[in-house]
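Worked Example 4.2. Consider the chain below.
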Amino acid sequence: MHFTDLHRAAVILAVACAVPCTSLSAQQPTTSLIPPSAADTLEIIVTARATDSVRIEKDRLLGDRRDAETRWAGFQDQANRLTATINELKDAISGATAKEKLARKDKRDADRIAAVADKRRIERSLELVEARYALREAQAEEARIHRDFLDAAVRADDAELEIAERRDQVVPNDPSQRTAFEELTSRWLQAQRTRSARSNDLEDRRFKVVEAQIALLKRQRN
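Applying the procedure from the previous section yields the following structure tokens:
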């Protein structure tokens, strides 16, 4: 066999060996790195609630909000009146102190003793009024935080109602409608987060109210 014949035979053999390998490789399935369970990453965030239930809850929250606003105004008014009383008591203490000093200077022991007793009585009254003032301030702040919590809860219900109204109208293949629905969902989630934060603030404020009540009770028992 000539060199050219050998060369031609080698080429034919190489092609014959390559063809089956190529065919086998083409027939092998491509393995995906994503598990089938993770193929769909979309999730419905808003849990479906009956719109009637949401509306009933919203009406209740609005009623509670009006009560909280009334409570806040009442406690604020009481705190302001207690502030005036505190100033009056402080003036009375200053007057009793002046009488005590004058009686001591004039060596009037009876008047000095009476002035000291009067001063102590007024100081005790001042301590009680200051404790009541601290309680009213804590109660007013608790009512304000409660009002803010209810505002956030109402906003969350409003967003949920709007989502419920739009849910059945969204066309899955319409990007603009889907984007609008996602914006509603985002607003609902933001309101829920604010509601949760205000709930934590409210619990902390209620704790401070109890602390102020304990302090007032101690003052009254002493």
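DSSP finds four helices and no strands in the chain. The radius of gyration is 40 Å. Compare this with Example 4.1 before moving on.
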